[in-house]
Amino acid sequence: FELYLDSAHCEEIRALSKVLPLAGVTTNPSIMAAGGVGLTQLLPVLIEILGPKSRIHVQVISNTVEGIVAEARQLHGLPFDIVVKIPANTAGLAAIKLIKQHDIPVLATAIYNVQQGWLAALNGADYLAPYLNRIDNMGFDGIGVVSDLQDLIDKYQLPTQLLVASFKNVQQVLQVLKLGVAAVTLPLDIAQQMLNNPATDAAVLKFEQDWQAVFADTLSFG
Ligand code: E4P
């Protein structure tokens, strides 16, 4: 299983990397813009934070087949483990088909329905990123799309895996985990939500108070 953070905010990623077993980071143009740092600067910092084996998913900016292919080759030439994110539209699907002839790792992104994911998988995408919350917000069934894609992957033994994206609450994360997806990418606030439980904090405080009432400041072996 691979756990990613969906962010380009280095200091928050650094803090969370101390607690979470991160496989890497996913970005898209909006996330990069929010981080405010270009790729040349960002990549070495992410590798310093997450270690040399971490995997970074970087989205192309081009929207023509030729442009996407050229950008993918450039990204693949960088000395990092980069997966090229390509939107699963007509130009993107054509580009994925060409790019996979060069064995470049690809994630088909912005997947809103089963057929997009299915076609991207047939064209060789290594990862599929269904946009769970955005699908829900359109009035469709995000979990249903993820579940159908996972069924097709299993039934046809497709050489691809789901990296589910676009979460707005923890329940959505738990639901896709129960479907057996290979990876998720969490926004920083959702990762934080999963770490914190006020009931645990209250329990720890009570343990401390009970201990100190009898043993003052000694530690457990004191
Ligand atoms: C991930 O890589 C996607 O681009 C991202 O999760 C989309 O999420 P959003 O719906 O929160 O923008």
From TrEMBL:
Coiled-coil region: none
Compartments (UniProt record): Cytoplasm
This protein's GO CC annotations: cytoplasm
A Pfam family annotated for this UniProt entry: TAL_FSA
Name of the protein in its database record: Fructose-6-phosphate aldolase
UniProt-listed CDD domains: Transaldolase_FSA
Membrane spanning stretches: none
Keywords: Cytoplasm, Schiff base
Catalytic reaction annotation: beta-D-fructose 6-phosphate = dihydroxyacetone + D-glyceraldehyde 3-phosphate
UniProt-listed SUPFAM superfamilies: Aldolase
Organism expressing this protein natively: Methylomonas lenta
GO terms, molecular function: fructose 6-phosphate aldolase activity
Signal peptide region: none
InterPro entries: Aldolase_TIM, TAL/FSA, Transaldolase_AS, TSA/FSA_arc/bac
Any one GO biological process: ketone catabolic process
Family: Belongs to the transaldolase family. Type 3A subfamily.
